[in-house]
């Protein structure tokens, strides 16, 4: 038994901490994760501070001195200490904690901590003056997609969350809020409880992320308001030239200098709806963002299991009309039964002695001992409303799914207290939790990459994407953990590729698997909704209809807004003019080649 770890930070002490109600759970999760970790917490740095491209140490030092004069010495910190991967609640802002390439490769040169929007403007102007790339993060819990790592090594990370973490407004009547980048789902939820407001937030699987950062990266949650970007209303943005912009109704000044009273009520306002270009892009730094909240309501979680792997197309066909008719109350998840094994938090070695993917019959044997029983697919849904309305919704749902022979229906009361459904029931009623961290005990030093293609909610399409995943996970020898997040006409088919951070062979295979998944799905017409920064160029390159019209459009905007190319160059594959055609794109097998001693960039 490994010893207990020092307690995770509490929300009362630190903006990024965990609420008291979850302290014991967080401690247990941390102890478990560290007991499955055998790499040292940190190793001595092999390299000095990673300088921004084309910048001498002397020029860099001068620039840092100037920035420290503006922000205060303690608010600009050099990234020259040993790198610590930490864990979810104590994550680094220096690099990608789930590094795929060398830990020291995708690092920033320094971290800057602005306290106000005016200071963000100051940093942006400074970056233009000194030609130093900057990379904004909110809380940096974007694990599986690059974490806090800047795409261009040596960039200065603007860690917005540390000092800009106020809930600026919660409007109980309008059911909306305005937050700064450092407000986590935990913090927003706790504040709503403190004020006893009958409102729900919508949170992703883990509650420690930034409400604003997740929405900007177009993350999803699981209540009826699970599409986070679709449920935002109004943004305040610092543009790459330092100018301040308010979108939506915020562009119309309120009376006597007040915020516009409809800023959080009406999204598009007048003229082109510009908000979209500030999501998954490098066109601005979002310093405030409004969100709609959901009014508290009755809710009922449930689980349906299906017996055969081959039921998959029938399940998808049953889901479509239910989703399109809005019978399905939220963003339900369809998961393969393999996940029932790893959400227990037990390591793979508990279930299977080999290192190859767990054979189907071994999964079957263990599943038959679990509450789900021997099944193939597991559907987690939640219905909302009053008791009568929920009952009639459940009748329709049960009726639709019972056409699939052997489908079994469970309510939380039918399942043991430690079953995963109880955590889903919380998430699906807007209560942020930590349960999903249990995944990360699967292999020692576990890290993960997400592969996240979009498929229409149609059996023929979903089957193609699934078959590609089955085939390629087998080829590269990884367990397949698909979760389909159902949002009406489409499903986010998300697979979690789990690898050991200390094992170069696993990392190489994981990277090769990602690359082949992206390419193979694209050939069939399926693309990702989001990806890790190392694969951003490849994914962006698949959206190439009409001679890359979309990327040329993005580049036109980028060059107009950011002529010096200082803001997050390369994010989502959008490179400013200064960088284009100079070897910055990561394509082909460059990631695999960089693993185990190589370097991903710069290749100048
Ligand atoms: P979370 O902690 O919710 O996962 P992050 O802070 O990691 O969110 O943000 C995810 C990504 O979105 C970041 O890597 C960054 O590229 C982008 N991003 C986050 N916050 C902002 C912001 N305020 N302005 C512009 N881009 C942002």
From TrEMBL:
Protein name as annotated: Vanillyl alcohol oxidase
Names of required cofactors: FAD
Record keywords: FAD, Flavoprotein, Oxidoreductase
Cited PROSITE patterns: FAD_PCMH
Gene Ontology MF terms: D-lactate dehydrogenase (cytochrome) activity; D-lactate dehydrogenase (NAD+) activity; FAD binding
Any GO BP: lactate catabolic process
Coiled-coil spans in chain: none
Region spans: Disordered: 35-54
Signal sequence residues: none
């Amino acid at each position: 038994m490994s010893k207990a770890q020092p307690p995770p930070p509490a929300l009362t002490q630190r903006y990024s901490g965990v609420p008291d109600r979850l302290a014991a759970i967080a401690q247990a999760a941390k102890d478990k994760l560290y007991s499955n970790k055998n790499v040292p917490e940190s190793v001595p740095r092999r390299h000095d501070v990673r300088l921004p491209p084309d910048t001498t140490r002397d020029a860099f030092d001068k620039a840092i001195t100037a920035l420290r004069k503006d922000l205060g010495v303690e608010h600009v910190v050099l990234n020259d200490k040993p790198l610590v991967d930490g864990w979810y609640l104590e994550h680094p802002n220096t690099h990608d904690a789930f590094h795929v390439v060398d830990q020291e490769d995708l690092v920033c040169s320094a971290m800057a901590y602005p306290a106000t929007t005016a200071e963000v403007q100051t940093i942006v102007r400074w970056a233009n003056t000194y030609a130093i790339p900057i990379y904004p993060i909110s809380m940096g819990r974007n694990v599986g997609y690059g974490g806090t790592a800047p795409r261009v090594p040596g960039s200065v990370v603007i860690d917005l969350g540390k000092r800009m973490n106020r809930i600026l407004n919660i409007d109980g009547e309008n059911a909306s809020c305005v937050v700064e980048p450092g407000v986590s789902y935990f913090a927003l939820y706790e504040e709503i409880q403190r004020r006893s407001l009958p409102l729900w937030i919508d949170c992703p699987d883990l509650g420690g992320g930034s409400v604003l950062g997740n929405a900007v990266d177009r993350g999803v949650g699981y209540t009826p308001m699970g599409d986070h970007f679709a449920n935002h209303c109004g943004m305040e943005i610092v543009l790459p030239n330092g100018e301040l912009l308010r979108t939506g109704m915020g562009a119309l000044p309120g009376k006597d200098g007040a915020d516009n009273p409809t800023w959080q009520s009406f999204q598009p306002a007048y003229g082109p709806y510009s908000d979209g270009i500030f999501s998954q892009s490098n066109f601005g730094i979002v310093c405030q963002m409004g969100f709609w909240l959901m009014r508290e309501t009755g809710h009922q979680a449930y689980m349906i299991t299906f017996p055969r792997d081959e039921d998959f197309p029938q399940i998808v066909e049953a889901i479509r009309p239910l989703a399109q008719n809005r019978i399905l109350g939220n963003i339900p998840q369809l998961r393969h039964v393999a996940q029932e094994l790893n959400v227990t938090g037990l390591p793979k070695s508990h279930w299977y002695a080999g290192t190859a993917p767990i054979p189907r019959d071994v999964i079957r044997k263990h599943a038959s001992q679990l509450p789900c029983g021997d099944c193939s697919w597991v559907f987690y849904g939640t219905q909302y409303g009053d008791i009568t309305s929920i009952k009639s919704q459940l009748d329709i749902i049960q009726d639709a799914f019972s056409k699939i022979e052997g489908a079994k229906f469970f309510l939380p009361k039918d399942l043991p207290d430690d079953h995963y459904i109880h955590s889903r029931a919380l998430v699906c009623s807007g209560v942020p939790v930590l349960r999903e961290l249990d995944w990360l005990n699967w292999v020692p030093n576990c890290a993960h990459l997400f592969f996240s293609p979009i498929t229409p909610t149609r059996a023929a399409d979903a089957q193609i994407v699934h078959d590609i995943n089955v085939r390629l996970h087998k080829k590269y020898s990884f367990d397949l953990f698909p979760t389909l997040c159902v949002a009406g006409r489409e499903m986010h088919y998300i697979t979690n590729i789990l690898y050991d951070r200390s094992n170069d062979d696993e990392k190489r295979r994981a990277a090769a698997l990602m690359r082949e998944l992206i390419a193979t799905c694209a050939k069939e017409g399926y693309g990702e909704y989001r990806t890790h920064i190392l694969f951003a160029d490849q994914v962006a390159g698949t959206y190439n209809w009409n001679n890359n019209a979309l990327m040329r459009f993005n580049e036109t905007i980028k060059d107009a807004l950011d002529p010096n190319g200082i803001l997050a160059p390369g994010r989502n594959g959008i490179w400013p003019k200064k960088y284009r055609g100079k070897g910055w794109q990561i394509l082909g097998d460059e990631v695999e080649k960089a693993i185990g001693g190589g370097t991903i960039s710069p290749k100048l």
